[in-house]
Write a structure and sequence with these properties.
single chain, 208 residues, alpha/beta, three-stranded parallel sheet, two-stranded antiparallel sheet, 10 helices, 5 strands, 49% helix, elongated
Length: 208
């Protein structure tokens, strides 16, 4: 089956137009009747302005396509309605949908509760990947920050934020670069005194 990688950063609705156009291009150039029949639905999804109707239609389209959808970056709390819509057509869907969720320590229980609280999501199979150990997290930091001295205080900040979740480790480093907490000078990576802005991620972390 073809694989469609959909990486979400920010609000899901902001990615609808780009996602629909990519699927439109794929389906229009396919000889598979299952792909051809959803072209008109994709046209309609691009035209609909009501976000609730648009989200429902896109979930329907995803379920009808014989593809593997790897959706990275969904927030199971903010995008709960979309996840339920994707799960509604479980018995008739032709696609395989894999959702990757970046969860903070303490959120896995909330995710399990969400899955078992709705009839639509009861069929979701939760596969929990193990977090990195402190030693593995150290190795990841050394790989991503070559020639940078990782002091204990720096490591503690990363560990307290991520809990060993590799995606959260990378998000933390990304925010450091974007906020000026890390800069590249004279061939070396150095740490500055700039305050790290973690945006919505920090708010989620405070909840747990």
């Amino acid at each position: 089956l073809p694989v469609f990688l959909w990486t979400i950063r920010g609000q899901t609705k902001d990615w609808w137009p780009e996602t629909c156009r990519k699927l439109q291009l794929l389906c229009s150039n396919s000889s598979d009747p299952d792909f051809k029949k959803v072209v008109s639905l994709l046209d309609r999804a691009l035209e609909i302005e009501d976000q609730i109707s648009k989200t429902s239609l896109i979930a329907q389209i995803i379920g009808q396509l014989p593809m593997v959808f790897l959706v990275d970056g969904l927030d199971f709390q903010k995008n709960s309605e979309f996840i339920k819509l994707l799960s509604e057509g479980y018995h008739s869907q032709k696609s395989l949908i894999i959702l990757t969720v970046n969860s903070f320590p303490g959120q896995v229980g909330e995710l399990e509760k969400f899955i078992h609280s709705h009839p639509e999501t009861e069929k979701i199979e939760l596969i929990q990947l193990e977090s990195l150990s402190p030693e593995q997290t150290q190795q990841l930091l050394e790989l991503k920050l070559p020639q940078f001295r990782i002091r204990e205080k720096f490591f503690d900040r990363v560990w307290n934020f991520s809990g060993g979740n590799p995606n959260l480790v990378l998000d933390f480093l990304k925010n450091l670069w974007e906020s000026g907490g890390l800069v590249y000078q004279e061939g070396k990576i150095i740490s500055t005194k700039s305050k790290v802005f973690l945006g919505e991620a920090s708010q989620t972390l405070k909840t747990f």
